[in-house]
Amino acid sequence: MSISLERLNLFFKAAEESSNWSDNWIVVPQHTQLSPSLLDWRSAKNELTENRRTLGDFSASLKKAGIVDVTGVDLPGCMVLLPNGTRLWQCFSGQIEKAYSDAGLEKYDYPMIAPMNNFLSAEKVIPLKEQVLYVGTDSDFASQRPRAGLCPTGEEVIYDHWRRMVKTKQDLPIEMYRQSRFYRPHTSSRGASVFRLMENADVFEFHGCFPNVPHAKKRMRDYFDMQKALSAALCLPTVFGVRPIWTNQHRVSYLTIGGDTILPVSGSIQSFSLYMQGHSFSSVLPVQYKENGKRYFTEHVTGAISRRGMFAHLLNGWNSDGSFFVHPDLVHTKCKMFYIPHGLDDEVCAKEFQSLIAEAGVSSCLEIIKDSNKIKVLAEKAKDEAVPLRIFIHGRRNHADKFKMIINRSADKAEANLFTDKLDSSIAKVITGEIDRLKDMHSNRTVEFMHKQVVHCDVLSDAVDVAQNNKCAVFPLTLSEEAVHKLESFEVGEVNSFIPKNAFPQRPSKCIVSGAPTSWFACLTKRI
Residue ranges of the alpha helices (H) in 279-331? Predict the structure, then answer.
């Protein structure tokens, strides 16, 4: 791969500038001291033991939970998002759209196809050979002249629109986002991970079009802060870093920042991307404005997060029994209740109780179960769904009797019993308190997971061993092509990115390859 000297200089200059942006490049939640529970929880045995399950097992659990079926369409690269999956994705996408809007991005809607001429122009920047699916009639293909192409990225259709929009400097900036689907050829589904099948679906991409480099760089930093905040909001334990130019598509971007979510299986997955494109695309499509008799190409910054972020969250909350522990802020239904009457007609009490917890901000659903034979089946089904808290309320037999509540939590499959005379606000407070505790339990579980999976190394052999064991090795490394290729020659993973030294002020900073002082740390991990 040949890299021009100009491109290389741009990369090093931009990397040096970005090294001063922030010392927070690894996003993890804060560890929280759990408040005492008012319930007596009995933990399930061996629910969270270490295991060696595969991504195929993960796909099976997703289908069982009604989230996604990767075998639902007999076409490589396709899958079916099931009802529970669509509800989860609504929660995740709502967080994404809010973050984008708060950052000053406006929503646009573009077609999924682009004229053939746009692909010919874009191909000068990004390799598109065998990467485009074409659109046409039988006669179009018979004459070998398809009329359009399905977009494998957003640039082909968005930047052509900008070419028509931008005439003067006053037309800028343009800052927009869209929810899109990209179409890329898949020759086979055999051996492909669940993430590979889903990576092009429901992509929230954003694009910024700016009149000059300083404006673009300022917004690049703002977008970086936005993505880190979004990573925290989506509870994705993510390592952000500068992608090495020697092993990435340097023609597309001279500075790329990736956000890799650490996984318990196969290392990591890229959940976030951020690109400083400069005028790579605007010079060929072209997007330009005129000022004082001169024409200037616009400067572009772009980035994205796709549905794979949701599945990374699910994989990290995947229990050993195949169920899922999802952060309560990211589910449509925080509490699922089943009311089983036993003599007295107390359905009104159950519905009033549902209203009480709703007033406290806990969304729930309530089912009245009059056939006791269905309880076991419904309990098993509820166990598979990504609902943080499940409550079985047994009604009273007489006025001297008590309500019995059997409460299950998805975090560890623990169970608690509660007997009460009334389903009143005090009991509602207990339930809402447990939802808050589940939020803290999710954060603490993520923190403990990251401490186990992200390992600091000062010796080359240790870094290789860590990556070999499907963990993320972080170590001082010179920002150079030689150092990157040296690490990757061990074939245990990929040097995903570089993190500025100021993120690890207490760590030794001598390159583990050359021994020379360095101002960068690198991440080595297997990446899906």
Answer: 308-316
Please give the full DSSP string across 70-130, using - where no structure is assigned: TTSSSSTT--EE-HHHHHHHHHHHHHHHHHHHHTTPEE----SEEEHHHHHHHTTTS--TT
Strands 255-262 and 238-242 come out as antiparallel
**Backbone phi, psi, residue 295, to 5°:** -105, 140
45 pLDDT band (50/70/90 cuts)?
A: low
- DSSP string spanning 461-496? HHHHHHHHTT-EEEEE--SSHHHHHHHHTT-S-EEE
pTM for the model stands at 0.92
Structure tokens at 21: 């942006």
The tokens describing 73, both together, are 């369409």
Q: Which tokens hold the place of 310? A: 């949701």
Is 90 exceeded by the pLDDT of residue 123? no
CA-to-CA distance for 37 and 351, rounded, in angstroms? Answer: 25
Structure tokens at 74: 């007999």
Length of the chain equals 528
* Structure confidence at residue 128 as a pLDDT band (50, 70, 90): confident
Cα-Cα-Cα-Cα dihedral sign, residues 429, 431, 434, 436? negative
β pairing state of 364-368 and 335-340: parallel
pLDDT, tens digit (0-9, with 9 covering 90-100), for 288-312: 999 999 999 999 999 999 898 999 9
| Beta partners for residue 269, in sequence order | 261
Contact in structure between 175 and 219 (CB atoms under 8 Å): yes
Nearest residue to 73 (alpha-carbon basis) of 180, 184, 191, 198: 198
Is 166 exposed, middle or buried (CB count within 10 Å of its CB: 0-12, 13-18, 19+)?
Answer: buried
152 CB-near residues (< 8 Å, 6+ apart): 128, 131, 132, 133, 182, 183, 184, 200
**Taking a C-beta distance cutoff of 8 angstroms, is the pair 27, 232 a contact?**
yes
Rounded Cα–Cα distance for residues 44 and 18 (Å): 47
Rounded CA-CA distance 348/345 in Å is: 8
The structure tokens listed for 333 are: 């239904």
Tell me the two tokens of residue 111.
């077609």
Percent of the chain residues topping a pLDDT of 70: 95
User: Tokens in use for 53?
Assistant: 């399950």
Residue 120: count of CB within 10 angstroms of its CB: 12
Q: Which residue has the tokens 């917890």?
A: 357
Distance CA 425, CA 428 (A): 5
Nearest to residue 277, comparing CAs of 335, 340, 208? 208
Q: Is 339 helix (H, G, I), strand (E, B) or coil?
A: strand
**Measured distance between the N- and C-terminal CA atoms of the chain, rounded to whole angstroms:** 22
Instruction: Give residue-wise pLDDT tens across range 428-473.
Output: 999 999 999 999 999 999 999 999 999 999 999 999 999 999 899 9
Least confident of 47-51, 81-85, 183-187: 47-51
Of residues 442, 445, 463, the one with CA closest to residue 454: 463
Unique residue bearing structure tokens 């061996």? 46
